[in-house]
Amino acid sequence: MINLNGKWKGTLVFGREYGRDAGKELYFQMDLQHEGDTITAVAKDTGGFGMSPDPAKISGTFTNGVISFKKYYESFHTVDEKGTLVVDPSKKGPDILYNGVYDPATESFKGGWSIAMLVNQGNRTETFTCTGTWTMSQEK
To answer: What is the residue extent of each domain of the chain?
Structure first.
């Protein structure tokens, strides 16, 4: 049985939907609690593109080498056209969904993430989904 308890660090990469920002990286750390199939954590962005000043809450599962979790920030944040971080504490951030697979040889995870956002298009609202990849390994 794999025990995931402890400190982890990782990198997420922004996907093609991010246009000129595709391929940029965001670095994070989390203190993971693992009991049975359940995982919880508090994550903190530590550097890179789109770094939020607020911690993120994580909840999910780890079963048969597959991890799935939801991450969200207490406040909404985005990067504007000039590359400046904009934080709106009056709104909760959207759910970011992560899925990945554990590699016992490297003791690390690799997977994909997605975020669905509502975008106003004139008189209607559409859902726009952005994606990317991520990796994470336990701090030694």
So the answer is: 6-138
DSSP 74: S
Helix, coil or strand: residue 54? coil
Task: Report the CATH architecture of 6-138.
Answer: Beta Barrel (2.40)
C-alpha 86: how far from its chain's center? 18
Q: Tokens 């990796």 sit at which residue?
A: 135
More confident residue, 90 or 61: 61
Q: How far apart are the first and last CA of the chain?
A: 19
Alpha-carbon 87 to chain mean position: 17
Give the global pTM.
0.87
d(CA 38, CA 45): 22
Over residues 22-36, the pLDDT tens digits come to: 999 999 999 999 999
